[in-house]
Amino acid sequence: MNNELNDALENIKMISGVENVILVQKDGLPIASAGVWFSKDEVFAVSSATCAIFGVAHLIHGDFKYLLMESETSKVFIASLPYDSNYFLTITTAPRVNLAALFIEMRSSLSQISFLLQQYVDGRLPPLRSYSQDETQHVLKGFSVAESTYSTHSLSRSILSLDRSQALSIRTILRQVKDSIPNIDSVFLALNGGVRISLDSFTNDRLAAMSFALYDASERVVQTLRNSSLDSVLCETERTRHILYSIPNGVFSLWVDKNSQKLGLMRLLLKHYIDEIKRILSSVSAMKPSIPKDLRELLLSGTADRKLLLAREEP
Fold it and tell me: With respect to CATH, is domain 2-121 assigned 3.30.450.30?
């Protein structure tokens, strides 16, 4: 069975531009791989990083089929196996991979891998791991390498301040997007600092927050694997395409019917609008958020026995 699995992965690896292919359990354990790595540590690093975004994608899109993360230096492709959400494929590629050939090969390969797992793997692979609260805390403590008990906390994202003219200009662009692409469910910007810009009178904050979380998790994966900045994310389900683009201090989010328009044409249209949004936001004033002194002391102070100490500055 291992040979058959490896052959299925090698078929994908043979596509021009594909560098690595890994079959991963949803807890981050690599099952089989084909690629150009020189050590097992690199395989485990890719598996553990992508299992995080796999979990976020499933939380937001329960029926998601695949997710594509694109940067200037590479693409990272995550595909859910049909009929078995406990496993997924992670594929890393060169920036100019033939996506059409990859998608075509994936259709048959995913079904073959899913069949092999159902027929031969039952009971032979390590069980999926789950952790108690104490075990989780122990794992998290393992990431701390500082010798002192003092921690430095910082906020890296800026808060934007848009004037009425800038907000109206962005809304005009969003209206043009909706007019040029049929069957759009939702289109909006989710900016840092809680700013939501959409065509609706009341923006769906939950939808905006989920979109931002999906992009943020994808960005961390790309930075971990490739040390590169993320440009866009494409998540496809049975019915919907969710497209995310990086904009200054925020995310452009589009939810559209999967069969409304060809993906290539849609991405070509969006490129112009994204450039216009970036141009407007590049002139927007931004400021770093700060934590009031009283609140900072409340959150970060502690006694010798690690109980919370309430510290307040007298007026």
Answer: yes
